Amino acid sequence: MRIKNELALEELFELCDKRLKNVFANYLLDIPSIELRDAMEYTLSNGGKHLRPMLIYATGHIFGATWDDLDIPASSVELIHTYSLIHDDLPAMDDADLRRGKPSCHKVYGEGMAILTGDALHTLAMQIIAAHPASLPAAKRIQMLGVLSQACGPYGMAAGQALDIAIMHEDTVSIPLLNDIYRLKTGRLFSACIELGRLASTDDDEFNQEALAVFSDRIGLAFQIQDDILDIETNTELLGKQQGTDLKNNKITYPKLAGLGEAKAKVNSLYEEAFAAIHHFGNKALLLRELAESMLKRRK
Fold first, then answer.
1. Which helix (H) or strand (E) holds 102?
2. pLDDT at residue 92 greater than cutoff 50
3. Cβ(81)–Cβ(236) under 8 Å?
4. Opening angle at CA 257, ends 254 and 260, nearest 5
5. What pLDDT is attached to residue 5?
6. In terms of pLDDT, which residue wins out, 246 or 43?
7. Radius of gyration of the chain (CA)
8. What does 26-74 look like in DSSP terms, one character per residue?
């Protein structure tokens, strides 16, 4: 049963969308290059699901963090995620013409501007953590910078993408290695979201931190395996990007190694482990659980 005054999932999305737009509007005003500003605005307003910032808001909500303090990591992570999608879609990476049902950034603004747009979003994320107005203490901001930079740099997402380019076409890739790549490529940023939401609060309980680490690890890995499944089963119109990209690029995926049925079973078992990890939070984590359940049932 929903706690009185507890946010519903639809309300969380609306709140997240509104707050992100408010933050971004301030930073898009005075960019000297009109082309860069337009490309940044195009990608940031391109109908995303906001899963990662919603995870931050939902986690911070457990511990009573203020919305203003949560805006800082939530907007920063959305910027990081958006930059990664721009670069993923480039011809040198996944060579994707569509993103969220619209032409990819490089198809509209050209490859050079798309690269610069990704660079600008990446660095703006760090600027927001360092200097965006809120009551968040400097010590917390430094912790957040460490968590986010580790998740998206050479120890996280960038390493995962590098391994994706270097070895994801080789028949020698095993399921354990694939899991490691998926954790780097996708899971580390999910884990960062959960930790950033907690860091925006005053919680310092190690048990809570460890439980949330298990939760985020499992949903992050499951999310990437789901992407493999959706690339096979969901049509281009619903998916919002070209169906069958993995097959076209001859990439090793979880269904390719283990079979489609085993991939689906793995996703379900990972979510069960995730829910078990946060059971002790009770109704305080209702919103976080509902968000994770919506991720499990997603079709795009």
1. strand 102-103
2. yes
3. no
4. 60
5. 55
6. 43
7. 19
8. HHHSS-S-HHHHHHHHHHHTS----HHHHHHHHHHHHTT--HHHHHHHH
Map tokens 């079979």 to a residue: 259
Sorted by where each starts, the structural domains of the chain and their CATH numbers stand as 9-296 (1.10.600.10)
What is the rounded end-to-end Cα distance, in angstroms, of the chain?
Answer: 28
- Sign of the dihedral defined by the CA atoms of residues 138, 80, 250, 223, in that order: positive
Per residue in 274-286, is it b (16+ CB within 10 Å) or e — as a string?
bbebbeebeeebb
Give per-residue pLDDT as tens, 251-295. Answer: 899 999 999 999 999 999 999 999 999 999 999 999 999 999 999
Q: Is the whole model's pTM more than 0.85, yes or no?
A: yes
CA dihedral 276, 280, 284, 285 (to 10 degrees): -20
DSSP secondary structure letter of residue 154: T
Q: How far apart are CA 298 and CA 114, in angstroms?
A: 28
